[in-house]
UniProtKB/TrEMBL annotation:
CDD domains registered for this protein in UniProt: Mrp_NBP35
Descriptive protein name: Iron-sulfur cluster carrier protein
Sequence positions that bind ATP: 116-123
GO biological process, one term: iron-sulfur cluster assembly
Organism (species): Parasedimentitalea psychrophila
Residue ranges that the Swiss-Prot or TrEMBL entry lists as coiled coil: none
Residue span, MIP18 family-like domain: 5-75
Amino acid sequence: MSLTRETVLAALKTISDPISGEDIVGAGIMRALTVEGAEVRFVLEIDPAQAEAYGPVRDGAEKVVSALAGVDKVSALLTGHAAKAPPPDLKPGKPAQPQGPQKIPGVDRIIAVASGKGGVGKSTVSANLACALAAQGRRVGLLDADVYGPSQPRMLGISGRPASPDGKTILPMRNHGVTMMSMGLMTNEGQAVVWRGPMLMGALQQMMMQVQWGALDVLIVDLPPGTGDVQMTLAQKAEVDGAIIVSTPQDIALIDARKGIDMFNQLHVPILGMIENMSTHICSNCGHEEHIFGHGGVAAEAAKLNVPLLAEVPLHLDVRLASDSGAPIVVAKPDSPQAQVFHAIARTLVDRGAA
Ligand SMILES: Nc1ncnc2c1ncn2[C@@H]1O[C@H](COP(=O)(O)OP(=O)(O)OP(=O)(O)O)[C@@H](O)[C@H]1O
């Protein structure tokens, strides 16, 4: 059997990060993993002040990978963080400068996850995709921009208020290897967010630009359903590299998904692909498969619109139970077929250079 990236990552996950206590992949310090034939190379990016503590970590990581079948040569390097970008100058009263889309400091790519219709599983897909990318060694952020119904704190098992040590910038929260910020962390639980357009756009801009995201390979943005102010603001204020459209197979969801694709086309945001969620129902008792909402509707629509179909995610009780308990299925049952679908999407995006 030839050596795979997954085998190497699984071995590396047995090594702990002495600072965070997570494994070194989940802690987000693994960089630039390459597996070429029998040769494996990777970098551990660390705080230079902690270099001494990481010497044994590097040696341990090198050792577990060397012990894998099919490995001839391992090269593991320690590098220091790049210095953090200074916080943006956000003096109150400074008039807003009209500007085009900007890069979020430290963030390499932005992927928007959108749906035309509510409740089709956009947040579930965003959370699982973020965790799957983190498990594959990417530095991932998740911005819950679903300001009307933020659900990422629950899905990622994060609670409490984000700190703002200087009163200007906000420190994001982190779990399952994903750096996360959500309006749900700024409001009281159960409190409805009743905001009008301009306030809403201000809140989104603040979550993008004032949060200290750190260095990220990709920021996933979980958008509210539909084609409204938040979607427009995101595309106008930030350089969005691509959008993923989630839909269930029914016609009614597909009509709205089409509107979403049309909106991103108008905003010049490339469509990375569509995902059919709740595609096939798999009975958790007997494994019987049935198509509750029909099946294949999204594949047909994607073909018609000439966009890739990234995956068909089954409707399975475990997916909901995992999200409700704060550890998405990719984390709770990483080897389940449901989790594997999300891993496959993550791999496709990494292979395409999109994440
Ligand atoms: N593949 C799936 N299998 C089982 N349950 C699922 C699946 N996808 C989503 N769900 C469940 O369906 C519900 C709605 O999903 P989710 O909150 O992700 O949708 P959404 O599109 O983000 O909704 P909103 O309109 O609130 O933004 C949740 O309870 C979630 O756990």
